[in-house]
């Protein structure tokens, strides 16, 4: 059975008309503007289905009394060819029903153009602007694009948990999950040491779970468990990091695309997968969301204040470089990156005096924005800088040069204007190897025994990556602040809704 939703959108009505008059149609939406003249009135109505909405021409100005920006309405009338040059068709309205009024004196979005900073104070309302309607549709298109790519390449989408006992990144930046009872008991532990011990024992009884639980920082470990039976898996879901950052690139709650593939032995194969997924998705978005990209590209720089929104030309160039029409991503090793940074003549806030120095945001952006002026893969970082689960470069296939110390078969994807967008690695699949790495990093193996089982029973070489979805959207949209590419952003010190 073919289902058709009973209420047609403005886009559907316009497409069904094929540019010819259509009598007796009903338009539902929200008022953007109302203009009144002596003999007639014009109401611009939008429902988010197309960038421009539709203009309704009303022969009796009395019919628009009570209408103002933000009000919701139902209009009935005929679609006719427009005399004006701004639209092909318009609605000749014969009846208007006010569904929900909007007080023009109090409505925060009554102006046509508002700074993004102002809109961030009204997250619950900003979706009504053309800018953010386009942003959310672009987000939907990109998410659909990634799904299409992985489904077409025989990957299985799996759901991974949000509650977890593991921090696979090992940075200790996770949110602890506690019930009100256990939290209350924990905060009131007083008295002698013996009494405090008894109270802590009671806290354990009041815990909902039998082990300390956090919000997930990554789905990788759980994806690896699925990957032991399904050779190609991926997931798209939220991740949480208690990183006390106020930068324009960090959120406390964000979305990640993560993929794991079995039987990978060469890091270049993983880079090929990551690059192909980004390029295919970008090309799909360009084809499917041209109108939305145009709306975002037209965002005036003057309205963005401190947000470094890129110019239309910069964004178009970046989109091209991320699409199938652009050249292959550059590929260098960490060792080569250090040599570039040391010889470029720049003065760094974080010096790179020797091999083994951590690459900071300023280094990543220089490599992508100034040196290569394009997306670049950086591989084979020092083992001391990376998590325990990564395979040593020496144990992987492929020759990527001589390094200044032990490295791991890993990669970061750096993109101009943003920095790191994705990261991945080949995984250490041998039991003795993973145990050695855990000991070297002086980690507590408690709670990781199930992860060891994945190596005990039929382990295979494998690898995977995680891509920060919001950072990828920053590249497509030209937005300079990650808070403008997710509907309800949460960051350090802010969780308003």
UniProtKB/TrEMBL annotation:
A Pfam family recorded for this sequence: tRNA-synt_2
Keyword DNA-binding: no
GO molecular function: asparagine-tRNA ligase activity; ATP binding; nucleic acid binding
A GO term from the CC aspect: mitochondrion
Top-rank taxon: Eukaryota
Classification via InterPro entries: Aa-tRNA-synt_II (IPR004364), aa-tRNA-synth_II (IPR006195), aa-tRNA-synth_II/BPL/LPL (IPR045864), Asn-tRNA-ligase (IPR004522), Asp/Asn-tRNA-synth_IIb (IPR002312), NA-bd_OB-fold (IPR012340), NA-bd_OB_tRNA (IPR004365)
Alphabetically ordered keywords of this record: Aminoacyl-tRNA synthetase, ATP-binding, Ligase, Nucleotide-binding, Protein biosynthesis
Enzyme type, top EC level: ligase
Domain Aminoacyl-transfer RNA synthetases class-II family profile: 136-487
GO biological process: asparaginyl-tRNA aminoacylation
Record-linked PROSITE patterns: AA_TRNA_LIGASE_II
Catalytic activity, EC: 6.1.1.22
Entries under NCBIfam families matching the protein: asnS, PRK03932.1
Family from the record: Belongs to the class-II aminoacyl-tRNA synthetase family.
Name of this chain's protein: Asparagine--tRNA ligase, mitochondrial
Origin organism lineage: Eukaryota, Fungi, Fungi incertae sedis, Chytridiomycota, Chytridiomycota incertae sedis
